[in-house]
Amino acid sequence: MHFRYLPIDDEVVRNVRATLHDAHGNDLHVQISDDDGNPCRSCLRITPVGTRLILFAHKPFTTTGPYAETGPVFVHADACETYREQSEFPADFRPRTLVLRAYNHAGHIHDTILAPGETAEETLERFFTDPDVATVHVRNPAWGCFDFAVVRAEGAAAA
């Protein structure tokens, strides 16, 4: 089975950078990272200490309801190359422990697991063999922040 690994939409990121406001009415500012480990949700790279970042509230759902949570995410304050290798698991997330949350078509949590990035594709294979699974969110296990979404590649049907 093939997947697409999706960063936050370019339009959302461009708007945050241009206006320093997010879709939830928060006034934002550029901050300098003080550690190595903040992922940019646009390029899907882990940023080094000293990187200019913007922290904003993001709701990565197209549905409404109790599972459609909003949470904090970082992006580079300056333009970066949006993650384009959408058929490849983002390399910077391989060494990390991740939460994988499978959601059904109504946006309800269908399954979830804590998994090492090295074996994430095995879990994704298992989740997506179920036709009720529409998307999987990859999240930070400690903070719960959204990292990126995973969907079936076009033409890839559930087994």
Written account of the structure:
12% of the residues lie in helices and 34% in strands. With 159 residues, it is mostly beta strands. The chain has two domains: 9-76, first zn-finger domain of poly(adp-ribose) polymerase-1 (2-Layer Sandwich), CATH 3.30.1740; 85-152, no CATH class. The longest helix has 10 residues, at 10-19. The chain starts with a strand and ends in a 7-residue tail after the last strand. The model has no long low-confidence stretch (mean pLDDT 94).
Write the layout of secondary structure elements.
Elements: E1 3-6, H1 10-19, E2 30-32, E3 38-39, E4 46-47, E5 52-58, E6 71-76, E7 97-104, E8 109-116, H2 120-128, E9 133-139, E10 146-152
Antiparallel strand pairs: 1-10, 2-5, 3-4, 5-6, 7-8, 7-9, 9-10
